[in-house]
UniProtKB/TrEMBL annotation:
Record protein name field: Metalloproteinase inhibitor 1
Keyword Phosphoprotein included in the entry's annotation: yes
Gene that specifies this protein: TIMP1
One BP term from GO: response to hormone
Positions that bind Zn(2+): C25
Major subcellular site: secreted
Organism: Geotrypetes seraphini
Keywords in alphabetical order: Disulfide bond, Glycoprotein, Growth factor, Metal-binding, Metalloenzyme inhibitor, Metalloprotease inhibitor, Phosphoprotein, Protease inhibitor, Secreted, Signal, Zinc
Signal peptide: 1-24
Cellular-component GO terms for this entry: extracellular matrix; extracellular space
Cystine bridges: C25-C94, C27-C123, C37-C148, C150-C197, C155-C160, C168-C189
PROSITE patterns: NTR
Domain called NTR: residue spans: 25-148
Lineage per the UniProt record: Eukaryota, Metazoa, Chordata, Craniata, Vertebrata
Oligomeric and partner information: Interacts with MMP1, MMP3, MMP10 and MMP13, but has only very low affinity for MMP14. Interacts with CD63; identified in a complex with CD63 and ITGB1.
């Protein structure tokens, strides 16, 4: 990467690092729809290599992952030949570490553009494609994009509520004690006409919206 890019990335990391309460990377779990909507780049790819670019004085180290991309779900034309992803080499700067050595395993990777490079982090959504639910795959392929004008509001502590009717309250943590339950696995927050948004099932042939976004807990 050129020097300007590096400085830009380093500066954004400094901001990230200094805004945190401690040395540790802390970030909040996002619903896959939120991750999709906030991302610049959503692709399916295999990880085929990694190169560490060690930190030098005054600069952060970076890991460059080499990928083989098979699908672009979201992103500009300029990523059609995307070959490398970048992440801080420090865990404390939210660097992503790829643990699997299986080069034929496909991943959904959500990243951000920074200075012409695609950046990934441990806070992002990077999962084996095979591990997604059928609904999440449909979400990424076609449904989540329709909900990008809606906002998914995580319920972090009771009581929680939403303040606008374009919001859906994400309550998985209270219904299952994890952020990986029903709304995460099977639901998208979608416009429902008349400017409101509601949770809707992405299961094929089901139309129920059992989690009304207007209901406050
Ligand atoms: C590491 O990054 C610096 C700054 O961008 C670059 O000049 C250098 O070529 C990189 N080294 C490797 C081994 O990629
Ligand atoms: C980076 O540091 C590691 C461990 O200190 C070393 O094994 C590796 O060769 C270094 N890589 C480069 C490109 O200098
Ligand atoms: C690697 O991943 C592929 C595709 O998911 C799978 O079929 C294969 O069994 C995996 N190999 C190993 C050694 O886990
Ligand atoms: C989101 O809102 C903008 C501006 O109100 C509108 O132009 C756009 O079509 C909306 N997108 C979707 C997917 O509804
Ligand atoms: C789903 O909704 C459509 C129209 O909104 C309706 O025609 C269809 O019967 C519904 N399907 C089920 C399984 O309820």
């Amino acid at each position: 990467m050129d020097t300007r890019t590096y400085i830009f990335l380093a500066a954004s990391l400094l901001l990230l690092a200094s805004s945190g309460p401690s040395e540790a990377c802390s970030c909040f779990s996002a619903h896959p729809q939120t991750a999709y909507c906030n991302a610049d780049v959503v692709i399916k790819a295999r990880f085929v290599g990694a190169n560490l670019n060690n930190s030098t004085s005054g600069q952060f180290g970076w890991t460059q992952y080499e990928i083989k991309m098979s699908k672009i779900f979201k992103g500009s034309d300029h990523i059609t030949d995307l070959q490398f992803l970048y992440t801080p080499s420090e865990d404390s700067l939210c660097g992503y570490t790829h643990h699997s050595t299986n080069k034929s395993e496909e991943y959904v990777i959500i990243g951000h553009m920074s200075g012409g490079k695609v950046q990934i982090s441990s806070c992002g959504f990077i999962r084996p494609w095979a591990g997604l639910s059928a609904s999440q795959k449909r979400g990424i392929m076609q449904i989540y994009k329709d909900g990008c004008n809606c906002t998914i509001v995580p319920c972090i502590a009771m009581p929680c509520s939403i303040s606008r009717d374009t919001e859906c309250l994400w309550t998985d943590r209270f219904t299952s004690r994890s952020w990986k339950a029903y709304q995460t696995q099977h639901y998208a927050c979608l416009p429902q006409g008349s400017g409101t948004c509601t949770w809707q099932s992405m299961k094929p042939r089901a139309n129920s919206s059992i989690f009304r976004s207007t209901a406050a807990l």
